[in-house]
């Protein structure tokens, strides 16, 4: 997790992020202070719940309003692999930090770092586990087509990391594509939360649902209100004892029905976090978490 120093909704990402607030009611300094506190409290809550958290502060020297969302610029993978990603917005490219990767190397076994960031020069972008929702068991990369998920970059990633790409077009009620897949889909061990109605092609929608069911997941269908409340932007985590936890925002959790919560709670404990200021930037709890799939040294 990264604790931001100069957080605010990013004007460079506003055009294609329908979840992003167009205006903040409080002064910029207060917005930044609240965001810093929300990340601090969320990290502490995760630690108390048994999740090991590596918390870094934004270095503050560069204009990186979205630094709170590190899952977009890097991901880690079993076997000691790390990927660095090409970012769509120029000011988000400054979020990549070698000191964070070096810190991971000192704690975990890292065999290689595959850097796709050079694709930015060719206008090709793939924003990590925002653009892709990875099924690490069935090895499928579910990907909503967007400015931030170039098909060539996706193919390269999937070839290197042994995933099958499963891309699909999306459209909301205004015809706008989902900027990131992880705002509409969460794949857990035994369940998948999805705004499947957003998949534009009916046959593709059926195919995505079937692939998830084939892997043994129970599907939890999210409606437009729940997607808008970030119910799809959740991440299953492991506690120190191996227990499963579903991290999501309080707003997202409140939007779920009792029946939906019951399905989740058969497999994982709900862990709602308070992040209303962070959500002004168009992302929520899942976006704030860059998962660690590396073995400890």
Question: Please, could you describe this protein's structure?
Answer:
With 297 residues, the chain is of the alpha/beta class. Helices cover 26% and strands 19% of the residues. It is built from 8 helices and 14 strands. It has helices spanning 28-48, 98-107, 128-131, 151-161, 202-214, 224-228, 250-255, 258-265, and strands spanning 2-3, 56-57, 74-77, 81-84, 112-115, 132-135, 140-144, 164-168, 185-187, 191-194, 218-221, 235-238, 244-249, 269-273. Strands 3-4-5 form a 3-stranded mixed beta sheet, with no helix packed on it. It has a 3-stranded mixed beta sheet with strand order 6-7-8, with helices on both faces. The longest helix is centred in the N-terminal third of the chain and has 21 residues, at 28-48.
Spell out the blueprint of helices and strands.
Elements lengths: L1 E2 L24 H21 L7 E2 L16 E4 L3 E4 L13 H10 L4 E4 L12 H4 E4 L4 E5 L6 H11 L2 E5 L16 E3 L3 E4 L7 H13 L3 E4 L2 H5 L6 E4 L5 E6 H6 L2 H8 L3 E5 L24
Parallel strand pairs: 1-2, 4-5, 7-8, 10-11, 13-14
Antiparallel strand pairs: 3-4, 6-7, 9-10, 12-13
Tags for this model:
alpha/beta, 26% helix, globular, three-stranded mixed beta sheet, 8 helices, L-arginine/glycine Amidinotransferase, Chain A
